[in-house]
Every structure is written in structure tokens, then in C-alpha cells.
């Protein structure tokens, strides 16, 4: 089965090295980046300026090494060397290296979206952009987050910091 995924744009960030790029957008809320949307998708930005947050779905085109196992040591567990299944973690080495970043929208203008919450390398291809809708995206109560509940992530934490 073929699954064509057109690239709708690219992010521009100050990050050029994977090991020095924050592990999640939520762990780097202050750093700003820009999404440059391809001209043929610009009309699709209409109305996005009304939202405070959006999901960026990216193609993680520069993994630090290829997928060789369905269990890995996540960046956040490097110190303990505890292995997890790839579907119980959010690292870049996956069968389909699709990234998911919740970013704060700062400005939508023409073919650009300025955002805060950088966790992507400069030039990362973007597959989709979807508004965050609290009524749909925020589950009720305080949902458990598995092993993540036992890990503290400081603002701006990078894989290099966790080595």
C-alpha cells in the first residue's frame, strides 16, 4: 500500500544538531521558530490566527541512527539505561519517523507561522498543521503518562544534557 505524504512546508529554527535540540516542544516553550508554508497551502492558514496552540506533524528526516530494534533507551532514561518499546516513547527512531509538537502560535501572516516551543531542527519537513482544541485534545482529569510521570524534564533539556 502506498501512502503519499506531501510536505506542506519547512520549519526554520536556530537548531542544527540533533543532540543539542530540546527533546520536546513543551520542554522549550520560550524558543521561537517559523513555519514556512508552501504557497499552494497558504490558503489553508485562514482562521488559524484565532487559535493559541497548534500541533505540528513533522517528518524527522535526520535521525541520529536507524531503527534497529523495537525497544530502545529513550533520551530521558539514558542515565538508567532502561529500555522501552518504541510505541511507549516519543523518540525519533520509529517505523515512520513522524514527530508531534504542540507549539504556541505567535503570528500567522501570509505563508509564515511564527511559533514558540522549538524541538525541531532547522529545515525539518512539516506534513501537517492542526489547531489544538481543548475540548477534543485535553482529556478529563489527570491522565497517567506511564514512565514519563517518574521523570523530571528541565526547560530546554537536550539529548546531550541527558548523555
Automatic annotation (TrEMBL):
SUPFAM superfamilies linked to this entry: YaeB-like
Domain of life: Bacteria
Alphabetized Pfam families for the sequence: TrmO_N
PROSITE patterns according to UniProt: TSAA_2 (PS51668)
Assigned keywords, A-Z: S-adenosyl-L-methionine
Keyword S-adenosyl-L-methionine in annotation: yes
Gene3D superfamilies tied to this protein: YaeB-like
UniProt KW Membrane keyword: no
CDD domains: UPF0066
Domain TsaA-like: 5-141
Family membership noted in the UniProt record: Belongs to the tRNA methyltransferase O family.
Protein name stated in the entry: tRNA (N6-threonylcarbamoyladenosine(37)-N6)-methyltransferase TrmO
Organism: Amycolatopsis rhabdoformis
Amino acid at each position: 500500500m502506498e501512502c503519499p505524504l506531501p510536505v506542506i512546508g519547512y520549519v526554520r529554527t536556530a537548531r542544527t544538531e540533533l543532540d543539542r535540540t530540546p527533546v520536546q516542544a513543551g520542554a522549550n516553550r520560550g524558543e521561537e521558530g517559523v513555519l514556512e508554508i508552501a504557497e499552494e497551502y497558504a490558503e489553508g492558514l485562514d482562521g488559524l490566527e484565532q487559535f493559541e496552540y497548534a500541533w505540528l506533524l513533522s517528518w524527522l528526516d535526520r535521525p541520529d541512527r536507524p531503527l534497529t530494534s523495537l525497544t530502545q533507551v529513550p533520551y530521558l532514561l539514558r542515565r538508567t539505561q532502561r529500555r522501552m518499546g518504541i510505541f511507549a516513547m516519543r523518540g525519533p527512531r520509529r517505523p515512520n519517523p513522524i514527530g508531534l509538537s504542540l507549539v504556541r502560535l505567535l503570528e500567522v501572516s501570509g505563508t509564515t507561522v511564527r511559533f514558540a516551543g522549538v524541538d525541531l531542527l532547522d529545515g525539518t519537513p512539516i506534513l501537517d498543521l492542526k489547531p489544538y482544541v481543548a475540548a477534543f485534545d485535553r482529556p478529563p482529569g489527570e491522565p497517567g503518562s506511564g514512565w514519563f510521570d517518574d521523570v523530571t524534564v528541565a526547560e530546554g533539556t537536550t539529548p546531550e544534557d541527558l548523555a
